[in-house]
Amino acid sequence: MVLKKVCQAIVFALTFSINSVSYADSVASYPEGWETWPVVKESMNLPADTVLPPDTSLFIQEAVRSYSWINDGQGSPLTIRVNPAKLEQYKTHGPYTDGPTVVAVSEVQGIIWVTEHFSGLPLYGSYNRKGEDISNMHPSLEPEFCARCHDTYKDICINGTCTEPVLSSYE
Predict the structure, then answer these.
(1) What is the 3-state secondary structure (H, E, C) of 55-104?
(2) Single pTM value for the model
(3) d(Cα 58, Cα 131) in Å, to the nearest integer?
(4) Cβ–Cβ < 8 Å for 25, 144
(5) Distance (Å, rounded) from C-alpha 140 to C-alpha 146?
(6) Cα-flanking dihedrals φ and ψ of residue 95, to 5°?
(7) Taking CA 27 as the corner, what is the angle to CA 25 and CA 149, rounded to the nearest 5 degrees?
(8) In sequence order, which residues have a C-beta less than 8 Å from that of residue 49 and are 6 or more positions away?
(9) Which domain holds residue 156?
(10) pLDDT, greater one: 3 or 63
(11) Number of domains in the chain
């Protein structure tokens, strides 16, 4: 299992760094029991026809643009849950110990985005509620897409976990 994770992390890092190969399979593993993890945030995958305020951050603009297809463009509540063993780490955004860290759940569509850490690196995956890898269902679900966005917005996505919920744009 550890060797498999190391190999996946190396393939992911190489793919991400050379950016010439698409790696569609999830790298983060599906965390059994995530449903019992504490909810730390509630947000929203906004509908496709959302008009954002002019001062909306680039991170939120990218998130809305990337996930406006969810639920046939109608949006969906988004619930963020953190592995109870990593709650203290989450409060300071790491550094994180190895293993599943956080899940974001699109409640209507049933998409589960997973962030896992291995040797200090964030790994990403996309699953359905049955634990089946769905990262090839849409380009925005591929681990490379997640990594590229999280890396671009390092001021918001610290150590692979993001801090700016979409709903804050409307408060």
Answers:
(1) CCCHHHHHHHHHHCCHHHHCCEEEEEEECHHHHHHHHCCCCCCCEEEEEE
(2) 0.79
(3) 31
(4) no
(5) 7
(6) -65, 155
(7) 90
(8) 73
(9) 2-170
(10) 63
(11) 1
Band of residue 59 on the pLDDT scale cut at 50, 70, 90: confident
Task: Give the relative orientation of helices 143-152 and 2-18 as an angle to the nearest 10 degrees.
Answer: 60
Tokens standing for 162? 């993001």
Let me know: does 116 contact 29? Beta carbons within 8 Å: yes
Q: What is the pLDDT of the chain when averaged over all its residues? A: 83
Sign of the CA dihedral with 139 first, then 145, 146, and 150 last: negative
User: Residue 22: is its pLDDT beyond 90?
Assistant: no
E strand or H helix that includes residue 19: none
Strand partners, 115: 102, 124
Encode pLDDT of 78-114 as tens digits.
999 999 999 999 998 899 999 999 999 999 889 999 9
